[in-house]
Write a structure and sequence with these properties.
431 residues, eight-stranded parallel beta barrel, alpha/beta, TIM Barrel, 28% helix, globular, Lyase, Ornithine Decarboxylase, Chain A, domain 1, binds pyridoxal-5'-phosphate
Length: 431
Amino acid sequence: MPMTTSFKTRLFPDLEKIAAHFGTPFHIYDETGIRQTGKTLIEAFCGLDRFREYFAVKALPNPAILAIMRDMGFGFDCSSMAELLLSRKVGGRGDDLMFTSNNTSTAEFQMAAANGGSILNLDDISLIAKVPQMPELICFRYNPGARRTGNSIIGNPVEAKYGVSHDQLADAYRQAAARGARRFGLHTMLASNELKYEYMVQTTAMLLDRAAQIGRELDIRFDFINIGGGLGIAYRPEDEPLAIGKMGAEITSLFTAFKTVNGYAPDLYLESGRYMTGPHGVLVTRAINRKDTYRTYIGVDACMSALMRPGMYGAYHHISVPGKEDLPVKGLKDVVGSLCENNDKFAVQRSLPPIDAGDLLVIHDTGAHGHAMGFNYNGKLRPKELLLRADGRVELIRREETLDDYFATLQFNADVLDMNASPGKTYRKAS
Ligand SMILES: *Cc1c(COP(=O)(O)O)cnc(C)c1O
């Protein structure tokens, strides 16, 4: 089921007031829901010696949200300098930060090592020599290649740009140890919006297996395994939610078995983005136009700059029209933004109640990879973000972009490199 009933019950009665005060469109996030999901996650893995969620910052990179994660004891999975900085802004230091970059630059390595550092999760064996200072603790991202999980549905990792290949993995740890690493982690990320918990169990089994093998081969122990993110949420009303309890129980059994054989167990890390915040955010937008041509179009005041997923992936986001939910649905409608791209549609041929100009529409499950993926194509600006606090207050946690923001990077007085002015330093055509 999309958007929780609890969030709906707390949000919908005040929605017009919130919209009148802040103006539409906006994403609004639910602190209560985020904390409940965090608790669910912790409870699912309470049988392990140590479990930690590293929230995938890219899903919802707002300090107010990150502060809630930190308050729950979570760390942060970062893959860019901006994400490292954001996480440090809310107090993340050292082991609180997992830096899972790829195609990493020297500047990124330097930032990862600055200010108390972070856990380096290396994406390739060639990067070992490029780490300016090998930290004591090092992690590698494992790409298992073709079907090593015994499951064909996990996609085809052979085509993914990420990770150290199966045959390189042991050597990667050997080389890192030779450069001074003493503690080790193992990471993979193989799923995306996966609702079948069994795949995460299989991924765990695969990583524990590799940790045991490489551990024996090199006589090392693993501090942790990180099974990545990719836990799915129910975007469609008919979707069965991920069975997190079963997932926790089966993964716990795998750890118990590992401990029996190897005499120790690593910590378990998870780096969920979508699962943590996806259902706990909605995009609120107002209908401004209706157009009846070959189809009926409801034009709203938000567009793809606020939410790319429908246009980019054809993703389904449930839509409610508060106050009209009990009215009979009449006809099929497309809900559209104003961008000059025909895929700027929040819904295509959707059964919805009658919608009049001025009605508020609530687009569900925008709490992850929603605002964060927004863009400025066609000069469209990103909307504001609000946070519905557990005590009922509503906070503006990011303002909307303005035309001044859009113009801020333009150089109306161009910075010129004049080849004719310093001919000695530049390539000159042979005459
Ligand atoms: C995007 C990403 C995640 C989070 O994915 P979700 O589907 O939001 O859980 C976690 N880890 C890495 C390395 C990622 O790139």
